[in-house]
Amino acid sequence: MWKEEDKKTLNTFIKRVSIIIGIKIIIIFFFFLQAEKKIWNTSTEIIQEPQFCFNWNCINLEIAKTQQERELGLMFREKIDENKGMVFIFDWPWKHGMRMRNTLIPLDIIRITTGYKVVDIVSLPPCYEEICPSYKPETDNLRAIEVNSGIANKLELKTGDIIKLNI
User: Fold this and answer.
1) pLDDT per position in the chain (167 positions), as tens?
2) Domain residue spans in the chain?
3) CATH class belonging to 51-166
4) Is the Cβ–Cβ distance between 109 and 144 less than 8 Å?
């Protein structure tokens, strides 16, 4: 038979052990959440590619931000994947003209301005000539996206639409 004093000692011991176990569970849970958050943040930073999205469809983008990269653009490429394209980042809003010189594939050019509003969409054929026409929009733009010809139509993208651009 247990003495009253032994019962109190046992109850005190069980309470202390329970508290210690509870604290350890909380600490382990906290560290688990922190580790999971770090893994998630790291993986999204690694996996996330520049892309533009509209109507739940996303196109992965290469970025042309320097003058040299913008001048080269998609020249000399025989094809690009249907879900890929290139975004041109301009330093200031303006009616930035684009040429299709040495561009071997037909392209849609989607021009956007502040707030990621589409201000111009044009489908252009390749140009194999030494001198090719410059296509200028009527509205200032800050970015231009080149994708395979027909993609803008397939996405049902129109002037005035707002796109999501992750760059």
Assistant:
1) 667 777 788 788 888 888 888 888 887 766 655 554 444 444 444 446 899 999 999 999 999 988 999 999 999 999 999 999 999 999 889 999 899 999 999 999 999 998 999 999 999 999 989 899 999 999 999 999 999 999 999 999 999 999 999 98
2) 1-48, 51-166
3) mainly beta
4) yes
Q: What secondary structure does DSSP assign to the chain, as a single string?
A: ---HHHHHHHHHHHHHHHHHHHHHHHHHHHHHHHHHHHHHHHHHHHH---EEEETTEEEEEEEE-SHHHHHHTTTT-S---TTEEEEEEEEEEE---EE-BTB-S-EEEEEEEGGGEEEEEEEE--B-SSS--EE--SS-EEEEEEEETTHHHHTT--TT-B-EEE-
